[in-house]
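Our collaborator T.R. sent over the components below with a one-line note: 'Predict the complex.' Nothing else. No constraints on interfaces, no templates requested, no preferences about which chain binds where. So this is a plain run: every listed entity goes in together, and whatever single assembly comes back becomes the starting point for the next discussion.
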Amino acid sequence: MAARTLINVPPKAKRGEVIQIKTLISHIMETGFRHDNVGRPIPRDIITSFVCTYNGEEIFKAALYQAIAANPFITFHTVATESGTFVFQWTGDNGFAQDASAKITVE
Amino acid sequence: MNSRVRLALAVALLSLAASLLAAPAAEIPLNERRSAYEDMSRDNKAMQDDDTSNPGMLAVLDGEALWSVKVGASGKSCADCHGDAKTSMKGAASRYPAFDTASGRPVNLEQRINLSRQQDQKAQPFAYESKEMLALTAYVALQSRGEPIAAHDDPRLKPFIDKGRAAFNQRQGQLNLSCGQCHDDNWGKHLAGNTVPQAHPTGYPTYRLEWQSLGSLQRRLRNCMIGMRAEPYSYGAPEYVDMELFLMWRARGMKIETPAVRP
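Returned assembly:
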């Protein structure tokens, strides 16, 4: 099953308003430090990077490591400057790549 | 210590021991029952309340997709028979475990889904606790969110509720504890750093932060049994289903919260 994402961006905001953005993605975030029931190491499989762009401009970026729990929940704030689209991109081990987007109307 | 003091001490100890031994687990009065949601931190409550923050909703999205996948020799999806789950499955989870005439005993929601897969869809059953099983159960149970848990007053269920109650009050494991000693007699107190909950199955499958995934009620029961140092039953065992049934009966009228978030 593909990774699932849940995005919470306010659909409307006033120009200059500080808005909160919440993102959730399904991912096992396997640390690579664990072993299976016969002692074989379980290879690392994590998301390593998260980037958010607002009308093409990068406004938020995070590097993720093994200490992040499964299904990473990332929330941050930005200033609503103009109507447009937020694009969220997650990349990780084994060629993992997932994106999602959300629209906002700024009045 | 003089003999009188010694005697008084012995009597006090004996009566304490007697009260511990004899005290039957008192059932919680209906109006004092509360979901463990009430005991959670503000952050955890917020996580459960917002469907874009609740990680259980990721599995619900998977379950929604599975609902319309055609599977098995029948080539049918769940939707082909049941239509829109939002209407056909409304309240369904609040009535499980329910009596299954064919096997003559109660089946839980997971078992009902697998019966349907095997008999109607002619497909392989899902493994218990598999990602698919949890996803589909969560999607079905979500349709009962806010619905009161049914009274489970089918007379055929009565003997199984009684079995579940007996198991709930049975001391077991190396610690020689019963479920009731914690969840009926000492709820609200603390065990290590945690508040002892009343153990109402209102939000299953539940996303536990400790598990970093969704888990079934039976996984939770295993957890408690291992904690009591008792040997857990295998998944799907009738003993678990009886206990699930008793717990649902005990929580009758309380509202379904699936998918709940718990620490």
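Summary for T.R.: Chain A has one domain: 5-106.
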